[in-house]
Prior knowledge:
Layout: H1 30-35, H2 42-53, H3 59-67, H4 74-78, H5 85-96, H6 104-116, H7 120-127, H8 137-144, H9 153-161, E1 177-178, E2 186-191, H10 196-199, H11 202-213, E3 216-219, H12 229-232, H13 237-255, E4 268-271, H14 274-280, H15 283-286, H16 291-302, E5 304-306, H17 307-314, E6 328-333, H18 336-339, H19 346-352, E7 358-361, H20 376-379, H21 381-396, E8 402-405, H22 408-418, E9 427-428, H23 430-438
Parallel strand pairs: 2-3, 2-4, 4-5, 6-7, 6-8, 8-9
Antiparallel strand pairs: 1-3
Amino acid sequence: MATSNQPPKSTEEDLTDPCVHCGFCLSTCASYRILGTETDSPRGRIHFLKAVEAGELNLSSVAEHFESCLGCYACVTACPSGVRYDQLIAQVRPQLKDLPVRGPWQRLFRGALFSLLPYPGRLRRLLAPLRFYSGSWVQAMARRSRLTQLFGPEIAAMERLLPPLSAGSFQDALPLLRPAQGQRRARVGLVLGCVQRLFDHQVNGAVVRLLTANGVEVVIPPQQGCCGAVTDHQGETAHTEKLAQDLMASFTAVVGHQKPAGAQPLDAILVAASGCGHTLKQYDRILSAHPTLAEEGRTFARGVRDVQEFLAELGLSAPLHPLSPEPLRAVIHDPCHMLHGQGIAAAPRRLLAAIPGLTLVSPMDAGVCCGSAGIYNIVQPEIASQLGEEKCADLVATGAQLCVSANIGCTLQLKQTMGTMDSPLPILHPAQLLDYSTRGLQLPAELFLKGSG
């Protein structure tokens, strides 16, 4: 890794060279849309990197413009020259934490987040006293009185994102093995996600029911932790490496002894949160500093699939039923790490289109970030809030009755913003809709009440 004032060069080529400064990235860049400054755009940041490399600038002097980047990768999709801005920002981020752009409070606050968010046990202990606060009249009063603002913008942002907590948020009730219904068509492992299993635990339950109903046997390592998405997105290299190793070890401990000679014990390793999926597919990069681990990471990453990606390839075998007596219109929110990070767009639409009576629509600015971006909506709450408002207005303008999104960060961000709107949309994971449809259940009427989404 290069010094803090000089970005590292790619071992293959200078990643900034393909940029021709055409500006196609500008309209897709979330930070540029809010701040409106060239210096807070991919093109501007690439210009800075070239200047730093030439010795004309030091990284400290322009670090704030890299801090404003959400890492949504929309510019990668938009770029006609094939600039890998995702690789560039991944190289720069580890250096930012050592630069003066982050004051003592920011460093302390981020350190606290990294010591909590990747560890479900710790997070549950912290949240236990808040179980009767979240979703209560006390929380509503605290928000209306703006009492939460007294603790600073970051704490206030965290409180706004806090969803109602139930008993299911504080336990992992899924068994080690859930057998397939009928003839077994595949055998998979499931990554639960550290934040998702606490703040939207119903998603994992829906995923398991959906998979087993379609002939898939599901293995769930009980000791699994975080995949490393939160820390990787912030350039915490050593921490991410440790989390990746631990997660791989948890799967090896459960299925390794069952591995037949020369064969994989699992057909795939599935994940239902797109931010996690993107990180899991990057384990060869994350562990690249350790040759033996890098090969293990590469093998692991090759087996990772998003749940929707996997089911679209396998095909649904269970019949689907209408979700409502009347036709429903659903808008799809494409999470950035699904659409731009993994290039998955068709699979969710193909699966959901099979539900009778369900019509799918897309928002006008489908490829623009909602403002979640890992912990961005906590450490940069003002910009994130504006992006959330723009995104939700775009989703509501489609005339849809509900929204589907396959990433826990996006779901929390959208629910928080929708809660402030006159006509909010309920937010569900695609697997939840498919689970309801597979079981022949109609969507609960309370989903469509204001504030219940």
